[in-house]
Amino acid sequence: MWPAGLLCRSNEPANLLYGAWLYLRVGPPVAYTTDMDWRYLLFLILTLLITAVVGYGTFMTARLLRHWQPQENALLLPAENILRATVLVICFFLGRGSGLPPAALGWQLPNAGAQLLIGVLTGLGLAALFVGIGRFVIRYTNSDFYRPILALVIPRNRREARLLPFALLLSVVFEEALFRGLLIGGLSPLLPTAWLIIGFGVVFGLLHSPQGAWGMIGAGAAGALFGWLFVWQQSLLTPIVTHFVANGAQIWLASKQNISG
Q1: How many Å apart are CA 24 and CA 28, to the nearest integer?
Q2: What is the per-residue pLDDT across 207-217, written as a single tens digit (0 to 9) for each?
């Protein structure tokens, strides 16, 4: 939904670009009510607290992986998936209790078919871009890009191959619900949307510290792209599909190249 007054001029290319810029700057309109204030404040505190807890857990994981590698696929660890599912449920209740309209959090499916198509094409393009950049980085630097992390999540047998898509989907939905839905959508009444996209893109990159410096840069850029897709489509569906396809394609290509060997 474009801000009021922009649609009447959207047939002019210059005004259309200006409208897109203004939309990112001010964000989607959110209706306030007087009884929403305390609920929204509680929502902010708990959302930022959960983000901090997730950040601390990621930091500890990065330290742990320097000295230890799991014996099974890292995406299939039961404790990790239980934690993701628990936080996802908490995110749902936080959003419901925030007082914000569901549309502000991306909890809607306008033009679902178009969103799916955009997500699949963007995800494949993003995966191809990362594969190309990865080959360049590995060839011309001393970095392994994030090959060691990919080696921890590629399926090693048919059982893992069957379970991996479900675990990956849970991980993607959890990340998008928190970083795009609650943080960008939930904080959009307070800050310009462009700031939120860039800021939480950086945070998203930092939380991928187990992937190393190049992995954090790539994740940060991808996080900003997911945020832009979320704002553009006003729905979590497009960034979820993009994120899932991009990660899934990279894991599939890594398994074909047998990088763990």
Answers
A1: 8
A2: 887 677 777 88
